[in-house]
Amino acid sequence: MAAMIKKASKDLIEEARRWAAMKQNGVSLRYMTEFGSRPTPRNLLISAQFLHKELPIRIARRAVELESLPYGLSLKPAVLKVRDWYLESFRDVRSIPEIKDNSDELDFTQMIKMVKVRHNNVVPMMALGVQQLKKDLNRKIGDEGLDEIHQFLDRFYMSRIGIRMLIGQHVALHDPDPPPDCVGYIHTKMSPVEVARNASEDARSICLREYGSAPDINIYGDPKFTFPYVPTHLHLMVFELVKNSLRAVQEQYMDSDKVAPPVRIIVADGLEDVTIKVSDEGGGIARSGLSKIFTYLYSTAKNPLDESGVDPDTATTMAGYGYGLPISRLYARYFGGDLQIISMEGYGTDAYLHLSRLGDSQEPLP
After folding, report:
1. Least enclosed by CB within 10 Å: which of 73, 169, 265, 301?
2. What does the longest C-alpha to C-alpha distance in the chain come to?
3. Is 88 helix (H, G, I), strand (E, B) or coil?
């Protein structure tokens, strides 16, 4: 029995390697919006047929890459678990025969929904694997020596964003009663001020829970201004930036008699970009630390995974993984934007989140 399982596993990995060598195809956000605006049974069938061919390539590439990471990272239990998730998902997608009609399409859609759920905890699980590696290496190699791992993680998480966007968009198109102006995941008239307000309230509630108090947050910008974007992506990015600022201000003023200054959010409508600036007076970041803030493994907070008994599947804290900023920057770059941090040690930090205007973009997404 064990020999049969081993052979099946080997055959699956070999098939994944074949698919990983195939060419990946991207679709533009403009195409997604135009195509998704008419979620007819025929269009949903075409979408499913595209994903049936595209998802195995993208998933296989990640599974294969997880097998050949440097410094023995591939052998860490947490990374092996993630690799198994990708192999299981590859097997599931490949097990679906050709999609010929709408009944096949519905079966396929249910299956990829389960694939998306399976991968919900990939980020904390990979964080645990990298943390295990860092402990093993101890002082043998510094963060500078982990460039190869940082580059892999950038590719890995950017690909994950793309896979989840494709699956999420297809699944959301089945909503019989979609919110106004929404095409799947895409909101054609999204208010960045409104999303920033919701994300800020979520971040502030975590700060209140952890510290018992939280600085105020002031938001400046026209709430009536809208543009096409993916609200869940923007919420994640603003949440991370505001969370960092709240923690910095809270810890800077925790033992002070002075009233903690507010975190300020400014939304600016430019011709090329929509820019969201998050400013704080939380003491800033040392110049020696600025070069590390976009590397995985760096955080000024205690890592929650260092605490015994913490489940990486459920851990939610103010900070500590060292993944918030690099992953937020990937989300911004996925749609052609960027994230920049400017800090003044002894005063505070400004984060500039540049969001590319997406309405006419015909560039294929990663």
Report:
1. 301
2. 69
3. helix
